[in-house]
Structures are given as structure tokens and as C-alpha cells.
Amino acid sequence: MGHLNKLRARFTRHYKDKFNRGRIVVGLGTCGFAAGGDQVLEAIRQETGIRNLDVDIDFTSCIGMCYKEPMVEISLPGMARVIYGDMTPDKVPALLESHIINKHLLKEWAVMQITEEGATLYENIVKMEDNPFFSKQLRTVTSRLGRTNPESISDYVATGGYLALDTALSMQRQDIIEEIKKSGLRGRGGGGFPTGMKWDFVSQAEGAKKYVVCNADEGDPGAFMDRSVLEGDPHAVLEGMAICGYAVGADEGYIYVRAEYPLAIKRLQTAIVRAEEYGLLGKNILGRGFNFKLMIKAGAGAFVCGEETALLTSIEGNRGMPRVRPPFPANRGLWGKPTNLNNVETYANVPFVINRGSDWYASMGTKKSKGSKVFCLTGKINNTGLIEVPMGISLREIIFSIGGGVQNGKKLKAVQIGGPSGGCICEEDLDLPVDYDSLSAAGAMMGSGGLVVLDETTCMVDIARFFLSFTQTESCGKCTPCREGTKRMLEILTRICSGAGKMEDLADLERLGRVMKNTALCGLGQTCANPILSTMRYFKEEYLAHIQDLFCPAGACRALLIYQIDTANCKGCGKCAKICPAGAIRGEKNTPHVIDLEKCIKCGACLTECSFEAIKNDAALSWNKRPNTRRSA
Amino acid sequence: MAEITLSINNVNITVPQGTTVLEAAGQAGVFIPTFCHDPELTNFGACRMCVVEIEGLRSLSASCVTNATEGMVVHTDSPAVQEARKTILELLLANHPLDCLTCGRSGDCRLQDYAYLYGVKTGSFEGERHSYPLEDDNPFIVRDLNKCILCGKCVRACAEIQGNSILDFAYRGFDVKVAPAMDVSLKASDCVFCGNCVAMCPVGALQEKGLRSAAPTWEVRKVKTTCPYCGTGCSFELNVKGNKVVGVTSCDGDVNGRTLCVKGRFGYGFIHHPDRLTTPLIKKNGVFKEASWEEAIKLVAQKLGRIKAKHSSDALAVLSSARCTNEENYLLQKFTRAVLGTNNIDHCARL
Amino acid sequence: MKSCHCGQNSPAQYQELLKVIDRYRHMKGSLIPLLQEAQEIFGYLPGDVMKKISTELKVPFSKTYGAATFYAQFHLQPRGRHVIRVCQGTACHVRGGAKILDAASEQLGIAENGTTEDLRYTLETVACLGACGQGPVLMVNNDTHGRLAAKDVPKILDKYK
């Protein structure tokens, strides 16, 4: 116990000292950078220099409110930490002047305040736990995100880090596995396999050499849970992996991170170096005789490597083509040795389970899905970002309470959950509890945690086509049904979206989907038809409208749009006719113009050009004034 | 070894533990179609043609890579299996040139056989097809990647049988093709043209250049024989059209399985070559003249006798050919020692 | 042993490659990281470099080529100094990612996966950059630019000389 206690004492003092001085912290996750957080940081550096302000400048990761990035936290000694959102470099002088120099909270830019023990609260600004975005969340894995410096091992240890590893190393290996089993933790990568059971298999597997592998090849479009956790709390993943290594009897581990996450890779590298420096990884960890070496493997751009056997094949230096299971990696994994494979979020949960006990963990969630789950809210939703909620919460609560509802007051059409392997949940089913089994029953899946909100302007056929075009590009090409089937399904969907669909296409899609589910070699192929099958199940009429009426109800499929000029609004200025690349618009000056539908290439240039909102392409107009009549089935 | 009993199409069969469902079905006399499976190669499990329904499992299983277990209940011909196999065939045919009328492998093509077996007509899926150029710039192998079904047998044959690894998969997804490094032709690669990939190819993607242009498969008679090139004694089948040898194909030889080398597989041109010697020739006045065997042997005997008498037996030496059989080699050494009276006998012992 | 014919590449690059190869020679599963480092050195993966790596690692050349063509990250042709990656993820897609791509393509006069003649830009798409809250997004080298409209594209690209 001695080693860690000493470190904790030192780091905790260091951590507390931070708040005894004025502090400015900038959110620098990938989303923070994307929103210009680095420029804000630079502006803060300059401004504090010019004004000679005696404050510390630090950075943290993404707290989850991507829609408010760039975010800046300011704290003064003895006062609560205040978080400002939507910052820009030119707001910086005013912000510092007010908050730091005049000690006056700048209310219009402030988002919330974070209470620290003994700190005085500001009036008239909501506390983080009362902010609607956070009030229904349950943050464990994400608890350090936006709160600590992810590159500082001191911050991690001061906030309870490596305590679980210390505890675990004093436990019997099997007891750790039992603890994980009792917690009810299931794989957070999408499959939902019970984690403790997997660890048990690896532990029982014969062989002296075993590996622990972390799947951080998060490739689903619309998902950035793993990235956020790696960028925001890399040590938690390392600690979880080390505990796993000890429990299953492995002394080496790999983290397979997709190459598109350079910041996550950098922070992981830093974390590993620091942890080794302080004897928390590497040889003779915490002086307990346990060795555990961790290495990072950067992916090289192949979504299929998120599939476990493909991932292992890729680490071994091959084309990332999946292998046939069984044998499962628990028995024959990396280089043929027993291998435990979990994803980022799963490992990050482990220290919490060990620290707070399996009973605490199992008290959250539903009967078969325990704990909390990180989701990414994206699409047509007001509050895009990263959230962590207890299992069993309803989608409605997530979207309307936390997510702030649909953008621009539009009507929610569906929620796409589970990415390219998942499906759509429509409005009527929003009260379903979010857990592994309910979502599967509804034709979707938990997936890794991407939640994409779709509104009435989203075409469900186009969404299915979009996902298929993704899986088709990412199919490894090994097995026949996936290689050839994704291609044909994409061709069919593209045809339907362009108005050349046939009624037989629907039966073909269903059959191809069924056969791929039945016969494809790996999960990518087996599940890639889900977005089609689920949209066909809930939105069949949209498919029929495309095929029979050559009409896209959402007005999203360009080839099916009909551009028309509203004679009431048209002033006859002629700008549209001038910009039209197809020469499809005619009309006398100062009299309403007309679009020749035969010539129109539906590029939308006229719509953008018109200053009088006279050009319409919306669904209602095309529906009512369509020249075509419904084709017979 | 422990034995297990499983049911295949409602018939119980007992097999040793470790037997795959495909092998068990074979022992039970139940046919399961395969493209990528070959008992001589490692398992690949990719074509999915051999899927079967196993009770209690959510999806179909590839029987070539699924071990039979005690009490397993297997159906090899259920509606789901039928649908899967038909669809896989349709998918393959949707990206396959349908030139069976002139294809050299017509009549000896698994894709054709299975399409017939499952009654699969063409035209189910319209869309993009590959249009790779035909590769026929070498004298031995014609490679038509448009016909390739990516079963990967050639890749494994090259790596596991020949040990050369000239071929591997390149690119990804729909664009996957089998190619030598840098996607060059076989001629530009380090290929030794053993043709073991050709012997494995279940379709017309890899064809023996001479054979397949000489006769359709149903016009050739196959005559099993032993390769004359060396003492290994590989078996193969001469493909004979009329009275002419038009090519060589692998059969299941005791010595070599289906493996052959470039000479055995492609070096049959001498058989009907106009320059081939069919009678002995004796040089008279500087010009070779045809002679009878009796004349020739008599002449050789005379000359050997003369040398022996004049310079002693040890002035003679005999070198026999690797293309002789053991029996012929035995006779030759006997002749050398007993008749010529010398131990100067050797053998080229290589090709 | 046959020496490498990295003739068209500079001797300095070649020296660096040899150093990297030595570093990875005895590491398990080193083919892909080695290809990644080689691409860092040369900007792409020339054939002779892949052949050298194969020889040194005792991996069949065809396997190296197979791996290099499997992963999207590897490039077998020279690329522009600045790589523009336009996100086509779900969130960006529904917020007009395609228009951003069109704008970039129009400005540079190259199609997707194209490289400008002066080797200044290469234009690519990417399935998802994971910055979905900021969509539509494009990335130039390692800089992410979010909440874009088509009209923003020219002035962003102009910054990269």
C-alpha cells in the first residue's frame, strides 16, 4: 500500500493547490480543436500576458457539450468553477476583464458552475448537476472528462486513480473475475457479452502466454465515445487493462487505436510513459511483482478491424480480414495465444467496479443491463455531444431532456442507433428502455453508442443507402455474401433513390439481407443489412413512394426533387435564369419565371440564388403538383 | 480417439472427434458443395457455399470450418440453406462473364455445376461487373480475373504447396483481386509456372493455355500415367483428343497428390513435336541417316567392344538419365558392370 | 544479399528507412507499423521500398503489397503536401457534407482522391472524423475545421501553401 499512498498524498496536495490560484482551463478534445479551442487558448495566453494576470492556464478534454465548444473554465480561489461556452478569441478580453479582473461572472456567456468543496457559489447561474444536459446523466466513465487534465497523471491519481489496481493486486485473481461477473458489466462495444465471463474463459484457457487487447478502433460513423474517453481519461483505460491482465494472467497488452485519432494516440502514449515512470505499469507494478507491458498499435484505416478477429489479424501484420470463429480469441487469439479483447469503455468501467464494488455497479441499470452507457448524440438534435446515462433510461428522455429536442423545431422522425450494424427506432418506440435486449427486440442494437437523430427532412431510404455505402466500402472482400451482396444492395438502393427502383427490388433487398445475416463470415456482413431491414420495417411507405410515385417524401433525394417557382413570390428578377447551368429557367423580366422540368438537373443553384424565397423544392409542393401518377405495383 | 455421434439430415453418424461437419457429411454420403475448401489446403471459410443449418444456432454455419459435436443436429438442405446457396450463386454469376459456350473449363467448372444443380438462372442482379484485361502473355497460364470467384485456393496453393507466395489478395471489398506484388502479370513476377494454382482453380479464372485452347473438356480422354521427367514418379493424366496428347492435368497421385512442376504439367510438347526422334540415326559421311534398331544397336555394340578391347573396360563410362525408371536404371548398371566390366556408372539424378 | 534500389528516393530517406527497419526487425507484427513509418519518410509507399521491407522482414512481397492495398491509410502514389479530408459521416452527411466536398473539388479542380499537379493538395473523403457535433467538418492535415458552409472552403484551403 505504501507506494501508492505516497504518490496519492503528493499528487492530491498538488491537485488541491491548483485551486488556490486563479485558473483558466480550455477544453481541448478533438471537438474543442475543431471548434477553434486552440485559437481561444492562444488568445488567452496573449491576453493574460498583456494584462500581466497572475493565473494558471491549463487544458482539459471534452466535457461532452460539443454544441457549446469551445469551452473555457475559469476559477478563482475559493469560488466555484465557471464554464463558459461558445468562446471565440475576440470574446477573450472581455471575459478575462470581467471574471478575473473585476471578479464578476459574465452571465450571458456562462453555461454553468461546478461546485468544489468549500467553494462559494455564484448566484443566478445553474450548477452543473442542475443543468438539463447533465441532470439526467450518470457519469462514471466520463466523470473526469472536462474536469481533469488528461495528460496529467497527478490529476488522475489525485482523483482516485490507480487505487483499483492497488486493490486488485491484493486480491485473488479469481475473486476479481467474480467481482466483475457480479457487477453485471457487459461488453460496451456493441455485442454486450458479459465481461466477467469472457475474463473467466481467458483465465481458464490453457497456455502460459496470454494477451490483453483493447479495441479502440472506433469506426462507426456518428460515434466518438471511445475517442472521448481516450482523450479525456486515458489512464482509466490503462488501469482497467492492467487489472484485467492481472486477473487473467497476461503480462502484455495492446491498444489498437484507429489512426484517425491522433490526439487519442498522443494522450495514450503520454499516459503509458507516465504510468511506467511511476511504477504503475511495466515491471513489478506497485512493488507487487506483477509485470504488465502495454503497447499501442495504430490502425491503418479499415473499419472491419473493429471486428475482433480482424483486429487481431491486423495486429499480427496482415490484411485485416476476419477469421472464422470458433476458435474464439479467448482460446486462440493474438499469435494463437489466449487473448482477452474488450473495448475502451468496458476497460474504463473496470476501475470503478473494483473501487466501488459490484453491488454498487449492479444497482444501476436494468435487470440484464447494468451500469451506465456512454452515447454520442448527433444529427438533427439541439444539444449534440457526449453523454453517459444509466441503462434503462428511455430514448425520449435522452433526446428531449438531455438533448434538448430536435433542431429548428422540426418533428422527430426516427433515431438511428448502433451505426451501420444498427437500426432505426421510430417515434412511437421512443419510450423503450435503453438496454441491450429491448433495442435488439426493436430491430436495432445498442451498438457502441452512436445515436443519430433524424427529422422529417431525412429520407429513410437515403439513410439506408448511406450506411450501405459505408459498409460496402469497408467490406474486406473475403466472404462472398458480403463482398458481392453489399455491392448489389447498394446498387439497388442507389437505384431507388434515383427513381429507377422496381417493386422486385424490395424483395431482393429482403432476401439479400436475410442471406447475409445467415451466411456472412463476420459481424460486419451479418449486420450490415440491419439499417435497410429496419427502415423497411418502419418506413415501408417511403420506399414505395420512391419506387411507385418517384417521390421522396422527405425531399432529400435530389434526383426525385421537383423545383418549381412560386408565382406569388417571384419578382421576375432573372437571377435564377442567369445562374441555371442547364438553361432550364425562362421568363420575361419582371414577370414570374418558369422552370422547364425536362431540362432541370436539380442542382439547386436557383434556390440558393433567389432572394425572394420563390423557388420551392419542398416535398409538399412536389407531392401535390406532380405530373406523374402513381405507377401500378 | 473419442468418437461422437451427430445427426445429418435425420440420419445418425458416428465420427472421430475433430471431424468437421463437411467431412462427416462426406462419410454419410451427403453432398455439400464447396468452392474454397480443399483437404490439401488450410481452411479459409470464405465462399460460404457449404453453409448448413445446425439446430440451436442463430445463423447458418460453414460446414468446412465447423467441428461436429456430440448430439449436433445438422440439415444440409433446409429451405434457408437452399436460399443461401442459390443467392450466393446468383451473386457470383452477377459478376461473372457468362461465356460458358467458349470457356475452356466448361464441363469442368464448379460454378457451372452448382448453377445447374440449384437451378440458378442468370440476371438476378444487374450492376457493375469487373472488366479486367485478359492475361495471356506467358506460354503456360491464362489468367482471366473476371472469372475469379476469390476462393483463394491459388493463394494458398502458392504459399502452402509451392512455398513461393507469389500470389496474395490485394485491394479490398468488391475490388479485391488475387495478384502478385505490385499487381503485375505472372510473367513479370517471380512465378515459376508450376501451375499448382491452376490445378486448384474451381472455375475458369486460371487455365492451362495449351490444353484449354486445344479441346473442350468433353472431347478429351484422360489417361493416367507417370511423369517421365524425373525419378519422383509423379502421377498425372494425359489429356488425349483423338490420338493426340493435348495437355496434362493433375490427378490424385500416390506420390505427388495433385502437385506437379512446370515440366510435368506444361512440358508435354515433345510428344508430338516434329523434331522428336522416332528412329535411331546413324551418321554416314557426316549426315545422319535413319536406321533400324537392329542396325543401331549392332553399331554401338561393335564400337563399345572395340574400345574395351583396345583400352580396357575402365576406358568406358555410362551416365544414365533421371528420366529412366528404376528398372531401366537397374538394367543399365547391370549391363555396365557385367557386360562392359566397369564400375563407371552414374546418373544425372536431377531434372 | 541484394541491395535496395531506392534510387529515385533521396539517400537520406533511404538511410532513415534502414534505421527504422532495424528498429522493427525483431518486433512481432511489425509489417504495418513499418509501412506507416516508411510512408512518413517517403510521403507514400514506393514499390522498391515495399520490396526492401519485405526482404528485410522475410515477408513475401505479395503479402506486403496485399496489406498496403488493404488499408485506406496507405498510398502507393505521391500525394499533395496538404491532405484535405472531407467528412462524409452521418452527421456531416445530413448537414450537407457533400456540398463541402463539391466546393473543395471545384476550387482545386480535382476529384475525390485526386492530387493537384503542383502536389500542393490531395482531396479525400473520410467516413467519420468523430467530430460529429461540429458537422459538417473537414480536416486539412491535422487541423479540423467545423461548422462549415460551402462558402468557407476557399479561404480555409488558401491558408495552406
Detailed description of the structure:
- With 633 residues, chain A is of the alpha/beta class.
- In chain A, the strands form five sheets. Chain A has a five-stranded mixed β-sheet with strand order 2-1-3-4-5, covered by helices on one side. Chain A has a five-stranded mixed β-sheet with strand order 8-9-7-6-10.
- In chain A, helix 11 (234-248) packs across helix 14, helix 18 (460-474) runs antiparallel to helix 19 (480-497) and helix 20 (503-519) packs across helix 22 (530-538).
- The longest helix of chain A has 18 residues, at 480-497.
- Chain A is globular, with a radius of gyration of 27 Å.
- By secondary structure, chain B is an alpha+beta fold.
- Chain B has a five-stranded mixed β-sheet with strand order 2-1-5-3-4, with helices on both faces.
- Chain C is an alpha+beta fold.
- Chain C folds into two domains: 11-70; 82-158, Glutaredoxin, CATH 3.40.30.
- Chain C contains seven helices and four strands.
- In chain C, strands 2-1-3-4 form a four-stranded mixed β-sheet, covered by helices on one side.
- Chain C starts with 10 loop residues before the first helix and ends with a helix.
- Residues 1-7 of chain C have low confidence and may be disordered.
- Classes of the chains: A alpha/beta (633), B alpha+beta (351), C alpha+beta (161).
- Chains in contact: A-B, A-C, B-C.
- Chains A and C meet through helix 2, strand 11, strand 15 and helix 18 of A and helix 2, helix 4, helix 5 and strand 4 of C.
